[in-house]
């Protein structure tokens, strides 16, 4: 039995296998539900590792897009080279934020630091 040429489009719609020229249905985002449907721009592990290694200088804050807080940590570190207390405070802040970033889930990280823009801790 031959199909009529007017039914070729109906077969493609009902075919679940799809063709090689079809676009994927949605972005792959490791299970993170973004507000606008796009994958998250920032990575939780990258932010945590930056906070752990060079967080005293505010690098993780710059990575997350919090420039004012990054400048505050950078100034605390540079002034802290002369005075011990600001250097110690910026290291404690960076270490605590590294632990928070590395222990939260990807969805909670996105909700807290990308969608809601929580500045500190």
Structure at a glance:
With 121 residues, the chain is an all-alpha fold. It has 6 helices and no strands.
Walk me through what this model shows:
56% of the residues lie in helices and 0% in strands. It is mostly helical and 121 residues long. Helix 2 runs antiparallel to helix 5.
DSSP helix count?
6
Would you identify the regions where 5 or more consecutive residues have pLDDT less than 50?
Answer: 22-29
Total DSSP E strands:
0
Sheet-strand content, in percent, reads: under 5%
Biggest beta sheet attributes: none
Radius of gyration: 23 Å
Oligomer: single chain
Mean pLDDT: 78
Assign an overall shape: elongated
The ordered H/E elements are HHHHHH
DSSP helix fraction: 55-70%
CA(first)-CA(last) distance: 68 Å
Alpha-beta classification: mainly alpha
Topology:
Blueprint (H helix, E strand, L loop, with lengths): L7 H7 L29 H11 L4 H6 L2 H14 L3 H20 L2 H10 L6
Tags for this entry?
single chain, 121 residues, mainly alpha, elongated
């Amino acid at each position: 039995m031959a199909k009529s040429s007017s039914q070729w489009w109906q077969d493609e719609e009902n075919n679940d296998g799809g063709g090689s020229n079809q676009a994927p249905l949605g972005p792959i985002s490791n299970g993170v539900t973004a507000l606008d449907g796009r994958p998250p721009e920032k990575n939780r592990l990258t932010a945590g590792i930056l906070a752990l290694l060079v967080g005293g200088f505010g690098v993780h804050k710059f990575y997350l897009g919090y420039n004012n807080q990054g400048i505050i940590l950078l100034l605390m570190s540079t002034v802290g080279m002369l005075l011990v207390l600001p250097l110690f405070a910026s290291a404690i802040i960076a270490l605590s934020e590294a632990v928070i970033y590395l222990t939260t889930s990807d969805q909670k990280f996105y909700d807290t630091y990308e969608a809601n823009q929580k500045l500190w801790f």
